[in-house]
Amino acid sequence: MVVSDLDHYPQETVGEMEARVPKRQAEFDRILAAIADTKAALQQDIRVVSMGLGLLLAEHHKWANRVKEVESGLEEIEPSQMDLKRQVGKLVDRLQTLELSAEDAEGRNYQNNVRVVGLLEGSEQDDMVAYLEK
After folding, report:
1. Structure confidence by residue, pLDDT tens digits, 44-89
2. Domain membership flag for residue 134
């Protein structure tokens, strides 16, 4: 509203408006003070949050480096672990073969049978002595 526009209002209305100006000015001052206080509080909160984020970022970098170290260690271990797995598989197969041989030897010992290593089972046909004399 421009000052020249006030001429159109009745004098009592202009007077009422002038009387309200200090009251409104005080209200605006309180609002501006509240805004300034809120701004200061928000700036402080932003500083606190920024510091917290800095700490979190440092912690994140620390853990990221630790994860890289662990991954590197795993990469070094994996080939030897695969070798060990193959060796264990071979040893299990060998153990099964030896267990079968031991069972066969125990069975033959129990029956007083002799096993001639290197001869196929049944190659002697009916007469072992004649087969061995050949």
Report:
1. 999 999 999 999 999 999 999 999 999 999 998 998 999 999 999 9
2. no
Report if residue 132 sits inside a domain. Answer: no
Q: Do 99 and 93 touch, CB atoms closer than 8 A?
A: no
Residues 119 and 99: their CA atoms lie apart, in Å, by: 20
Contact in structure between 114 and 108 (CB atoms under 8 Å): yes
Tell me whether residue 87 is in a domain. Answer: yes
Per-residue burial over 40-71, b if 16 or more Cβ lie within 10 Å, else e, is eeeeeeeeeeeeeeeeeeeeeeeeeeeeeeee
Tokens of 105: 């030897």
pTM over 0.85: no
Residues of the domain holding 12: 8-115
For residue 3, tell me if it sits in a domain.
Answer: no
Total tally of structural domains belonging to the chain: 1
Question: Among 112, 131, 114, 134, which residue's Cα sits nearest to residue 123?
Answer: 131
